[in-house]
Write a structure and sequence with these properties.
Keywords: Oxidoreductase. InterPro entries: Met_Sox_Rdtase_MsrA_dom, Met_Sox_Rdtase_MsrA_sf. Its EC number is 1.8.4.11. GO terms for molecular function: peptide-methionine (S)-S-oxide reductase activity. With 222 residues, the chain is an alpha+beta fold. The longest helix has 18 residues. The protein binds S-oxymethionine. The site of S-oxymethionine (MHO) has 5 residues, from loops.
Length: 222
């Protein structure tokens, strides 16, 4: 596999992040499923997901950026705890949350599973075949090997959370560039977008050592 892996930072200012599973113990999945803001939030709130980030992949041109995407696609990258959630679980969310039956006009938004290894390819192909036989329609979503993931600009990371600036700024001030790899940021980004249930939310809040002003601001949004 030629894939050059993104190396997550280890932000630790907040207990939830300090105690999060380290990158050496996680597995990684990469999906293209339309504008990457939505899946960043959806997967960020999913139990068993440890960190998320958005970026560009699936093309050949070097150093893509949002306004110079070349042949790349917007993707979400998900680090997960394989003892808590399976690749097949993530794929179920993936298939259910984009339209696999029609190829979008822009390559920027195409549906694609960028597999990290042969095991992932096998599960991806099996679930695609299941979907085709269940619906009797042919699936346009591609399954390809991930070559290289390029991290998107800061302002695209945890996009939903950025509309609660008190919290996003608090986390970014503490973490700087490592903000993107904060589990706290991933969860809150998901919760403010309406994902996750009350129990998950309260479990996070019980462990959240954010300043009171930031806590009450985020609660106001939930
Ligand atoms: N231009 C669209 C999608 C943004 S996404 C990062 C919007 O503003 O909603 O491609």
């Amino acid at each position: 596999m030629t894939q050059r892996a993104y190396e997550p930072a280890r932000p630790t200012d907040f207990a939830v992040d300090a105690e999060a599973l380290p990158p050496s113990a996680t597995e990684t999945a990469t999906f293209g499923m339309g504008c990457f803001w939505g899946p960043d939030a959806r997967f960020g709130a999913m139990p068993g997901v440890v960190r998320t980030r958005v970026g560009y992949a699936g093309g050949t041109e070097p150093d893509p950026s949002y306004y110079s995407l070349g042949d790349h696609t917007e993707v979400v990258q998900i680090e997960y705890d394989p003892d808590a959630v399976s690749y097949a679980d993530l794929l179920a969310v993936f298939w259910a949350n984009h339209n696999p039956m029609s190829a979008p006009r822009k390559r920027q938004y195409r549906g694609v599973v960028l597999v990290h290894d042969d095991q992932q390819r096998e599960v991806a192909e099996r679930t695609r075949a299941d979907l085709e036989s269940r619906t009797g329609q042919s699936v346009e979503t591609a399954i390809e090997a991930l070559d290289r993931f390029y991290l998107a600009e800061d302002y695209h990371q945890k996009y939903e959370l950025r509309s609660t600036p008190v919290v996003a700024d608090e986390l970014e001030d503490s973490y700087g560039d490592a903000f993107v790899d904060s589990t706290v940021a991933a969860r809150l980004n998901g919760f403010v977008a309406g994902h996750g249930d009350r129990d998950q939310l309260e479990a996070l809040f019980a462990r959240l050592d954010l300043p009171p002003a930031a806590l009450s601001e985020v609660r106001r949004r939930l």
